[in-house]
Structure to design on (704 residues):
């Protein structure tokens, strides 16, 4: 029989290709008792993929073209060839003047997108004078007032800068930023950026630190925040839906994608119930994911997620605006995969994770510094993390071709299988009555806990290798002593004095009045409670005062922790 | 040998909420036969002292993934003041090298870092619990 160049298909009568049969026999002869290979999401991985697993005839249906349904290959026609990704590293440390100095350094280096990471005291909803002072500014910038926000962006034109703020419900940081804009005479329509950490469900489930208001209040606050920004700050992305927390907490890649999509569906439904226009709010939804080192699994996770999202928005919600079908996501390399032992190995791990994210078609990337398991990253380590991205892009040429793994038998088959797995998990959530109900009942939390335990067991038994930890340990290699930066004690003291002065020199009756109005708005379905937050911030109320007042009305956020 | 299983408080103080580690360690200690008292994050130092007293624990385990270990020296002082010097204290999580030394100096028995095998943690905690019981003051009726 003459060999042809066309790919061989299964014989119509179901007969196997004789060459394939021979390979199977030879393979089994070489590996008679092989342990099955299973990925983190529980999918069994074959030793070889060919047209029996995925056929090119399904191209139009399963792949299509970049920027077109089914979106598997990417959300834009030119993808990374046209525009690579935003390099948005996290910044936030010390007091506002420290943040401002770091910001100016970054801007001089040509960065156009920055982040703002507040101190853990802010995350917990407190002002600096309500927490142990040893902790102030150690993990992010202390930021409580409109003066603080002004100082953070001193000498910077906030109309020209897109900021991603870690700003959980009730979104006080955006309120303070809008107050600064007002002070500087900048119209809110020129303010751009994203409310990161705006996904309260992920906080309730997995990142408990960010959970400030009880569930019903958080639910109301988010929808009002979306409604407010759509109308008043149209360049702002009010919502970033986070799979990262769940995967960091132990969810498998498939579970993390499934729970994230279910959360997005929940928020969309809540927006629709509030009377918002899906054609307008869907294009403002963005996502944030973890990238583990399970390289092909992560690539397949992103490709499958993109496909599912497009079909949900277009087919389930019937949205016609093609911008709404785009699954825009930021991704961060996973800290869970990094080790304290032989920490320089983490550079290799981050590289592999970043490759997975880039080949998965991300829009924005944060690469972890190798010393993140030792301390808050040092400047040297942060530079290596950024250069890892530059090397992958400009030396390794990862961006020359759009979706370069598209059409690979393995990647396509795995993408299909991940899609099935993700949809299976989504079905369990939907049959529990949707994400809100499922997390109220702890279904999601229990599942994540089980997966975390399962992964830990695979490390403890050595089934999953972790170099330097359960394999290839090398005695005597000590982690380098990190150069620690702790905030200057004097500047923290000065900050606290400044806060005290600020509180005493305000128009106290006006602040009290806006806080009362905030309480009234919280109890009236007909008012936008987020508009009242912005009014209070503009009048001079602090972050802690706004959160405290809302906690009185809505109840304090008490995450459901399943031990 | 100890008459009853070791009693261990697994908790987080301060402001950080990353609790994957504390939950995994709590499960591992339970699997190893210990009685674990587990709390949500964000306990005050005073909460931990009160719990250690009320629950009559042998060991307190503090999980710290951000910088909350900076509160541990204060916790050690508070435990001492409450006459709980015999209670063993271990810290697990991300603790920089030079700050580990500060914790040990303050009286922490052991700092576990990421990658510590669960078996090792259970073994050491159990040993610490045995020591704590030997040193515990006799209870008066």
């Amino acid at each position: 029989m003459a060999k042809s160049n066309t790919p061989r298909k299964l014989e119509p009568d179901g007969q196997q290709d004789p060459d394939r049969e021979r390979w199977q026999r030879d393979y089994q002869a070489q590996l008679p008792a092989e342990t099955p290979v299973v990925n983190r999401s529980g999918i069994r991985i074959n030793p070889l993929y060919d047209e029996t697993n995925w056929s090119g005839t399904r191209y139009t249906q399963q792949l299509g073209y970049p920027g077109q349904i089914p979106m598997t290959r990417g959300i834009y026609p030119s993808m990374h060839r046209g525009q690579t990704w935003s390099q948005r590293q996290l910044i936030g440390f010390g007091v506002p003047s420290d943040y401002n100095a770091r910001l100016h350094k970054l801007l001089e280096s040509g960065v156009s997108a920055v982040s703002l990471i507040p101190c853990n005291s802010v995350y917990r909803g407190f002002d600096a004078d309500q927490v142990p002072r040893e902790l102030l500014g150690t993990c992010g910038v202390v930021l409580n007032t409109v003066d603080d926000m002004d100082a953070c962006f001193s000498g910077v034109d906030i109309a020209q800068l897109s900021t991603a703020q870690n700003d959980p419900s009730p979104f006080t940081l955006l309120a303070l930023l809008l107050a600064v804009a007002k002070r500087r005479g900048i119209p809110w329509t020129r303010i751009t950026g994203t409310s990161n950490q705006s996904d309260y469900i992920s906080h309730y489930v997995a990142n408990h630190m960010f959970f400030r208001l009880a569930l019903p209040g958080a639910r109301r606050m988010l929808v009002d925040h979306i409604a407010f920004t759509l109308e008043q700050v149209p360049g702002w992305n009010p919502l970033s839906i986070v799979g990262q927390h769940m995967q960091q907490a132990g969810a498998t890649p498939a579970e993390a994608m499934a729970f994230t999509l279910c959360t997005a569906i929940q928020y969309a439904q809540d927006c629709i119930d509030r009377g918002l226009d899906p054609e307008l709010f869907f294009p403002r939804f963005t996502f944030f994911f973890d990238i583990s080192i399970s390289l092909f699994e992560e690539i397949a996770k992103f490709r499958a997620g993109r496909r599912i999202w497009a079909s949900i928005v277009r087919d389930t919600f019937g949205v016609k605006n093609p911008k709404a079908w785009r699954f825009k996501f930021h991704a961060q390399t996973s800290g869970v995969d990094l080790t304290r032992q032989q920490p320089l190995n983490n550079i290799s791990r981050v590289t592999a994770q970043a490759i997975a994210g880039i080949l998965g078609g991300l829009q924005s990337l944060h690469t972890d510094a190798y010393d993140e398991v030792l301390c808050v990253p040092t400047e040297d380590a942060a530079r290596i993390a950024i250069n890892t991205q530059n090397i992958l892009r400009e030396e390794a040429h990862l961006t020359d071709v759009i979706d370069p793994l598209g059409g690979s038998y393995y990647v396509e088959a795995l993408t299909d299988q991940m899609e099935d797995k993700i949809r299976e998990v989504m079905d369990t959530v939907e049959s529990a009555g949707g994400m809100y109900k499922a997390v109220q009942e702890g279904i999601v939390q229990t599942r994540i806990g089980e997966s975390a335990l399962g992964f830990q067991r695979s490390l403890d038994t050595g089934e999953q290798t972790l170099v330097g930890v359960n394999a290839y340990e090398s005695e005597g290699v000590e982690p380098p002593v990190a150069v620690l930066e702790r905030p200057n004690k004097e500047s923290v003291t000065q900050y606290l004095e400044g806060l005290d002065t600020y509180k005493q020199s305000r128009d106290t009756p006006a602040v009290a009045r806006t806080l009362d109005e905030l309480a009234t708005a919280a109890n009236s379905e007909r008012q936008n409670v987020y508009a009242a937050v912005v009014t209070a911030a503009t009048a001079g109320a602090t972050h802690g005062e706004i959160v405290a007042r809302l906690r009185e009305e809505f109840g304090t956020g008490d995450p459901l922790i399943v031990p | 040998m100890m008459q009853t299983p070791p009693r261990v408080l697994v908790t987080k103080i301060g402001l950080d909420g990353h609790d994957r580690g504390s939950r995994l360690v709590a499960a591992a200690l339970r699997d190893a036969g210990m009685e674990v008292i587990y709390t949500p994050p964000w306990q005050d130092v005073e909460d931990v002292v009160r719990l250690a007293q009320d629950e009559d624990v042998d060991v307190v385990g503090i999980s710290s993934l951000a910088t909350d270990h900076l509160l541990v020296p204060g916790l050690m002082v508070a435990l001492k003041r409450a006459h709980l010097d015999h209670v063993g204290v271990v810290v697990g999580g991300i603790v920089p090298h030079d700050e580990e030394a500060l914790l040990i100096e303050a009286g922490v028995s052991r700092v576990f870092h990421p990658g510590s095998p669960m078996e090792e943690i259970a073994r050491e905690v159990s040993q610490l619990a045995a020591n704590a019981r030997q040193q515990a003051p006799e209870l008066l009726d």
